[in-house]
Design brief:
about 170 residues, three-stranded antiparallel beta sheet, two-stranded antiparallel ribbon, about 35% helix, about 15% strand, globular
Length: about 170
């Protein structure tokens, strides 16, 4: 009897299917950057230090899986594409909250202080707990009212990108 492997994306377990889509480090890092508004190939490449062929393959897969859409824009003389989150890509936000909490608790960089990412409630400016709850306002905060501060990178508050309409993919 041949050993036929079923694609992970066809597995009954939703965790297995999610890992099939998200289980690559570059995929998660691209989605993290897209969540704070990064859209252009060159921006992703520069920020992540990722090879062009790998970035191209990951962006194509994210579009194919419905987490991002390709949107044309006029570049320097030719049409280029931006990559914007769909609602499915935006819905990854709680995963990033959990990864940030886990990473802060269980990982370190030798010789460097463990500076946490801050998730901020834009309405009051106070930090969120567990990524979605504002203890100052006693409310669960929606994506539209959340921003990130990544102090190791810049003190600038990064508002989250709005999901794109899911039409273009040319």
């Amino acid at each position: 009897m041949p050993n036929i492997k079923r694609a992970l994306s066809e597995a009954a377990c939703p965790i297995t299917r999610a890992v099939d889509v998200l289980g690559d480090k570059w995929t998660l890092l691209i989605l993290k950057n897209a969540n704070v508004g990064m859209t252009r190939f060159d921006e992703f490449r520069s920020d992540l230090g990722i090879a062009d062929n790998i970035l191209s393959a990951r962006l194509s897969r994210l579009v194919e899986m419905g987490l991002m859409v390709r949107v044309p824009y006029e570049g320097t003389g030719r049409t280029r594409h931006e990559y914007k989150l769909t609602q499915a890509g935006a819905d990854i936000l709680p995963v990033f909250h959990t990864l940030a909490e886990w990473g802060q608790k269980h990982t370190t960089i030798e010789g460097l202080p463990a500076t946490p990412i801050l998730f901020i409630h834009t309405a009051c400016g106070n930090p969120l707990e567990r990524g979605e709850y504002c203890p100052s306002c006693d409310v669960t905060v929606s994506r539209e009212d959340e921003a990130w501060v990544r102090p190791w990178r810049t003190p600038v508050v990064a508002t989250l990108a709005d999901p794109a309409a899911e039409a273009p993919t040319s």
